[in-house]
Amino acid sequence: MEQKEYSRRKFIHQCAGSGAALLGTLFLFNSCGGNEKPAEPAAKKEAADKPADPCSDFSGVSAEELDKRKNLGYVDQSTVPGNSCGNCGLYIPPANDTECGRCLLFKGPVRAEGHCVQYVAKTT
Ligand code: SF4
């Protein structure tokens, strides 16, 4: 009988010790930042803070309009000296810094430095 009570006492003592060890481990894990999200990489954070380039935003531009642009040979950077969208008669300049220019011939962003085969020198 005495042997049995000793075993019960020992069992309870071991359980209490294991519980304390578990609580201690959880406390350490929590205080070491185990629940915190990992820090965002600096380059990714900078990209998120910086406004997107409006001339790279093709959302809402249909595949048909993208084909028109392609078929006219539009390029973002003109290779013809003195001829670019910025001095083309069909160019619509952006209203502010958050917009990109446009063209009368197709929808979507057009860069002032761009060019296509329909270039028409501005007369005014
Ligand atoms: S017609 Fe061509 S060159 Fe002129 S603004 Fe449009 S895309 Fe640019």
Distance between the termini: 112 Å
Give the bound compounds: iron/sulfur cluster
Structural class: mainly alpha
Number of helices: 3
Q: What is the count of structural domains?
A: 2
- Could you list the spans in which at least 5 consecutive residues all have pLDDT below 50? 22-30
Mean pLDDT: 79
Quaternary class: single chain
Strand order of the largest sheet: 1-2
How many DSSP-defined strands?
2
Describe the structure in your own words:
It is built from 3 helices and 2 strands, in the order H-H-H-E-E. The chain is 38% helix and 3% strand. It is mainly alpha-helical and 124 residues long. The protein has a two-stranded antiparallel ribbon with strand order 1-2. It has 2 domains: 36 residues; 52 residues, no CATH class. Bound molecules: iron/sulfur cluster. Iron/sulfur cluster binds next to loops.
Main attributes of the structure:
single chain, 124 residues, two-stranded antiparallel sheet, 3 helices, 38% helix, binds iron/sulfur cluster
In terms of topology, how is this protein built?
Layout: H1 2-31, H2 42-49, H3 63-71, E1 91-92, E2 102-103
Antiparallel strand pairs: 1-2
The structure holds iron/sulfur cluster.
Summarize this structure briefly.
This protein is mainly alpha-helical and 124 residues long. The chain has helices spanning 2-31, 42-49, 63-71; strands at residues 91-92, 102-103.
